[in-house]
Amino acid sequence: MSLTVNLYYNGKNGDARKFAQEMEDKGIAGRIRAEEGNEKYDYFIPMDDPETVLLIDSWRDQKALEAHHASPMMKELADLREKYNLHMRVERYISDDSGVPASDQKFIRK
Fold first, then answer.
1. pTM of the model
2. What whole-number distance in Å separates Cα of residue 101 and Cα of residue 63?
3. Residue 99 and residue 110: Cα distance in Å, rounded?
4. First to last CA, the chain
5. Range in 48-52, 53-57, 73-77, 98-102 with the lowest mean pLDDT
6. How far, in whole angstroms, is CA 9 from its chain's centroid?
7. Mapping DSSP to helix (H, G, I), strand (E, B) and coil, where does residue 110 land?
8. Among 40, 85, 106, 109, which residue has the least CB neighbours within 10 Å?
9. For residue 5, how many other CB atoms are within 10 A of its CB?
10. Distance (Å, rounded) from C-alpha 44 to C-alpha 99?
11. Which one, of 5, 94, 82, lies nearest residue 42 by Cα?
12. pLDDT of 102
């Protein structure tokens, strides 16, 4: 099982992009990727919304995510969110360990 959290960071005047860039430049994102149980930590920019950045953040399980939330990096992250006055929308998903069904495989180009 994996737990995936989609975080939509929204700001003004490009602040969401500046936040994501600073997370990368300061190495905070890299340190999160190196945490025990982290499976994915990647930023994306929606084509139709230049003021939003999507973070796809996946963890082995809830326990790994809670350990991340208890880490000192969360203060650094929270401080940057505050610096850029970002607002968030969150979606949570639990993986389907059975994989992609055969009926869906015909839609996937490999």
1. 0.90
2. 28
3. 15
4. 24
5. 98-102
6. 10
7. coil
8. 109
9. 14
10. 24
11. 5
12. 86
